[in-house]
Amino acid sequence: MHCQKIITNLEVLPVVSPVPVFAPNLMPNIPSQPVILGFDPGRQKCGLAIVGLDRNLFYHKVVGAEQAIATIQTLRQQFPISLLVMGDQTTSQEWKQRLIDQISDPLRIILIDERYSTLEARDRYWQMFPPRGLQRLLPQGVRTLPRPIDDIVAILLIERYLERLTE
To answer: pTM surpassing 0.85?
Structure first.
């Protein structure tokens, strides 16, 4: 829990905010059905997301590139991950080989076209985390994102994969 302090009549009162705004979205119930791990690989940071076949979001987080494989292994112990969907651009081939080499019991890896995913993720960010205060008054294209959005790109990659299945 995060606490803020409000000063009223020289008295300090704690105000409790129930959910940190940028904490990883982790649903309390572990899904019984298989889920998909989305992976947006990068040189310095990577986005991870776990989405069910019913399109429920169970987890999303941005991690440093050096932590990505360890995080994926931990997530595999916590969730029934059936496959990994990752973007097909910049460092994808290098990351695909790393995953195959370094993960015991390798996952099935599917490459998805990630063109324009960052632009789409910017829009999705503001849908998931509506702006507050003066940010609300600025046009969306002018607002600066307060954090990396690689995890949201990972969510979009999973959605693109699921859409491809239903075509």
So the answer is: no
